[in-house]
Task: structure prediction
Amino acid sequence: MKKVIYLNRALWVFHMNTGSCNGCDIEIIAALTPRYDVERFGIRLVGSPRHADVLLVTGPVTKWMEPVLRRVYDQTPDPKAVVVIGNCGNDAGVFYDSYAVLGSVDKVIPVDVYIPGCPPRPEAIIYGVVKAVQKLENIKVVEEVEVRAPRPDERRIEVYVKYEPREPVPELAVAERITNFREVLGPYTEEGLRREASRCLQCPDPAPCVEACPAHVNAKRYIKEASEGRYWDALQTNLERLPFPATCGRVCPHPCETECTRGEFDQPIAIRAIKRFVADRGMKERWYPEVQAHRSERIAVVGSGPAGLTVAVKLALEGFRVTVFERSEAVGGMLMQSIPDYRLPPDIPPKEVEEIKRLGVEIKTGKELGRDFTIQSLKDEGYAAIFLAIGAHKDQWMGIPGEDLEGVHAAVDWLKGIKLSQDRPSLAGKRVIVVGGGDVAMDAVCTALRLGGEVMIVYRRAREQMPVTPEELLAAEKEGVAFNLLANPVEILGKDGKVRGVRLIRMELGEPDESGRRRPIPIRGSEFELPADMVIEAIGENPEGEALAQMGLKVTKWGGIEVDDQMRTNLEGVFAAGDAVTGAATIIQAVAGGLKAVESIKEYCEKSLVGVAGSRTREMES
Result:
């Protein structure tokens, strides 16, 4: 059923005609004023700004017109919303002026809908009005009809902005999924994929989705390609910036969707699900072209997580000889090794790793920095540059009594054991408390649930302050996970050396801390106990700062490798990114750091070659 947003608002149109767009105001107002069109849409045009809730300003808004616009604005009653629309191809810059004009006025909601063409499409103008008025009150949703295109001889046009909800991503029923580790979210059908991709508004550049992605993957382009059935092209667009489209298509926290313009109208595009579709579609194909190493420089990459493999694949495509050293026997880093199978099936990362190996990247497992080799030994072996992507493996603990009891686990290590084990343990009849409010905490509690445990999340803040990806929180709630919020453990209770319960204290929220969230403060005398057979702490991981400092690396106060804005460490020819620099973060942030490091490594190698060539020339001349 097609829907539109119904706006119970009055609109007044004001065209700032500077003489450059003769007749545009007539075109625009003619497109909006037919009573049978606008009233059906729910917008009521009025003859004076005194009776309007919304002021639509079209045309170039320049600073010299500020007095005029302000007089009109001051006649508009509260609450106020102003929609500013540039109506010609050269008006993209007017929004900066209009913001300057309106920036000091309270309760203004400028909406920068850039519409090329003269006159602008009326449906786009309506869309701008919708975006502004949605921020006011009394919004209703009603069923309506489609947009009707104008006849060649018709100056007026019936316009309805359609409410098009997101194409639902298939998922297993709760009763089925909590009993096994099958993947919860399924792929789109081809028909569903096309429907969802076609909802994309193809925003003008720079598109918000691309800007919001830390790695700047061109979502706008690959969504367009997918909507046209060009799935291979869409995959290649992903691979330009992202070596892990199938993995990210499942586990990326998708900040691109948070900023999607479509989400301000109805629901954001399912960008991650589209990425997954095109990646899965190409699983049986070779992803990258044949590349022969043609550079003399050898590059050492330490760590095979997202940052390390991003650097490896990008440098291999540039013709460098790349060797990856991984301390584990499994490739992919802690992120890919510890994400539960119901979110990331175990057969997905190996495909992506295999494509990287096909580029000639050598991966040596069971090789640990500081044990099997050092930074200096790599330099002695002739590696021109070294990239450190060693992750954050030092578990954070609460530092409370009882953490040495049997049954207390660090979340990532526990998840890794479950992920890599052949025989998963049964937690039937076990009471499991998971401490934390992030994605790792949700992974741990939902894994324990699937193993048969009676599970609960304990978190010291409120629900809206949890750092978890919203959909992961909703999934946990849907699966029946219990939550005990505004509570913090002060002691893990034991009997005969094993966990028997947890003593907690109630918290209240005070002033914001450095994270911007209100600081949890213990409430004196509010202690209480909960029974438990297992406690899983999911409060974060840090890099192993002491060991890194002993290697001569400059580290931050919390143990991360200190780098400049080009990912260069204090050691000559040594670069770093990923969790070793940022602390535990997301896969797409690690990829972004790796991409930045690639450019620095290339620049460093080029300068080194110039330096070598120059010194040889001087030797020959002497």
Summary: The first helix runs from residue 24 to 32. The radius of gyration is 29 Å.
